[in-house]
Amino acid sequence: MKQSKWMFFLLFLLAEVFLFGQVDLIGILSVESVQGYEVNLILQISNNGTEVFEYSFPSNEICFYCLDGVPVHSGLLPVVTPYSLAPGETDSFSFSNTRPLNSGLHSFQAYLAVMDNEGNGLPLGEPVVVEIEASQSVTIGNGSATSRIPIDFYWRSTLYECIYYANELNFTAGYVNSLTIYPAFTHQSMPYQDIKVFLGHTALDDLSNGWIPATELVQVFDGQLDFMIAQETLQIPLQEGFYYNGRDNLVLMALRPLPLDYGITTDPCYADPADLFRSRKACTDSYTYDPYNPPTATAAQHIAYLPKFSLSLIPYEGSGIDDESCVPALGQISHYPNPIREGCTFVLDKACSVDGSLVIYNLKGQVVNRLPLAGKNTLVWNTKDDRGMSCPSGVYLYKYDSTVKVKPGKLLIVK
Description:
The chain has about 425 residues and is mostly beta strands. It is built from 2 helices and 28 strands. It folds into 3 domains: about 5-130, Immunoglobulin-like (Sandwich); about 135-315, Sandwich (Jelly Rolls), CATH 2.60.120; about 335-415, Immunoglobulin-like, CATH 2.60.40. The longest helix has 11 residues, at about 5-15. The chain is globular and about 75 Å long. Residues about 1-20 and about 320-330 have low confidence and may be disordered.
């Protein structure tokens, strides 16, 4: 859309505030860092006009961005209502994409959240193109056997969990963007099946002491999958980003919720014999299992097989930035557990300065709490806001406020 058309629209929309004065907003979108498919961008907005830009954004969202033409509104930005920008003033906002992306080129365009009648925002600045590094596939097992795992369609609801060792994954750290299992269906296809998949890290070598609940994992897929006759592979695209650290063992959990119909099959997936205690499976025709509160562990749940399994990931070292002025994050913050219930511990590596503070945001971009480090490289957050009130369940963002560049992150509170 031409700038003159948007200028007329903006002036018409805000006529009561501006009295038809001139507002000339200029935006510059730039890439701060790229690591795997996590892209951090900075939008700089300047008012080059002669009138104050002032507007009450209904959702507290000043800006949003489009990724390959699809609007992304999940990261709402802090805003004082009404927001204003005087002539000659400049403001900046950060965007962080953590959605799994395939290898190749991806376009980001920033928008001002002043919408026209068709729901289109005002584009600010030129789009930027980021190249995501090539993925590599890691496969565990050769499918020498078959077993009704990770989903058993003979039962209406199943919960399965297993552990893959770090050495089986070649100690490869990276950003996972898809998973693959290997169906061996020969009798009946099972299309449109509701499936939930979770991934996580663990220091455990087996599940002899019970299930690892989903509260300690990340839900990476919640949708429908087609299990078809003669289908050699079934790729599961991740909906939520997951970073595998290459050091710990990997936990895979798969849930089939109780379906509305009663279609069943005894068809299995390709698998490999494994230590009896590395996996568990629970089955029922009566209800849907709760992955966050798994059933009581019993010896009968152990399955002496692991599914043949592949994951596609972008190695940690990959970067899509060629501009030397774009300096990637120097420091790293880890946190555990994630999701969290009552408390979370943040650990900063040696590259991080300990004179800064950790800022927690909600998805509206509002500051929930600011936690000073006070000379320490570990920090415990009790999931309470700056008023001492317990934070509700949901996704939260955190950012390290210091002169050292540190990659922002997010966590999930489940209560």
